[in-house]
Specification:
The protein is an all-beta fold. It has no helices and eleven strands. Strands 2, 4, 5, 6, 9, 10 and 11 form a seven-stranded mixed β-sheet that branches. A four-stranded antiparallel β-sheet has the order 1-3-8-7, with no helix packed on it. The termini are far apart. Strand 9 and strand 10 (106-109) form a beta hairpin. It has strands at residues 3-7, 11-12, 18-25, 35-41, 48-54, 59-61, 69-74, 79-84, 93-100, 106-109, 113-117.
């Protein structure tokens, strides 16, 4: 029932900012106790949790991304966003948004969007 869709540029240049948006349908991003996460997977590597924003607007960041990432929400559009500053080729990955339920389950995922950082 819940559907998430990532959108943003597929190609960015080193030193630029990567802007990504997750559009949610079938649920409200303000639903009680739900957290909305960003996760990425570089080629040949495992999943990397980046950060999240809760139903109330509280943000959480992985130490690996805290200095460069910013997560916001737009409740009227039922969207939440990720901005990743100062990207390098090592930021090349498939980026996912996900819904985290009250039990901590990552039960709903977007299909992922490929982002390549290259000059």
């Amino acid at each position: 029932q819940v559907q998430l869709r990532e959108s943003g540029p597929g190609l960015v240049k080193p030193s630029q900012t990567l802007p990504l948006t997750c559009t949610v349908s079938g649920d409200s991003i303000t639903t009680n106790s739900v957290v909305w996460s960003w996760v990425r997977q570089p080629p040949g590597k495992g999943l990397e949790w980046m950060g999240a924003i809760s139903y109330s607007g509280t943000t959480y960041y992985s130490p690996l991304f805290k200095s460069r990432a910013s997560i916001s929400r737009h409740t009227s559009e039922n969207q939440f966003t990720l901005q990743l500053n100062s990207v390098t080729p090592e930021d090349t990955a498939v980026y996912y948004c996900a819904r985290v339920g009250g039990w901590g389950e990552f039960a709903s995922w977007g299909q992922g969007t490929q982002v390549t950082v290259s000059s």
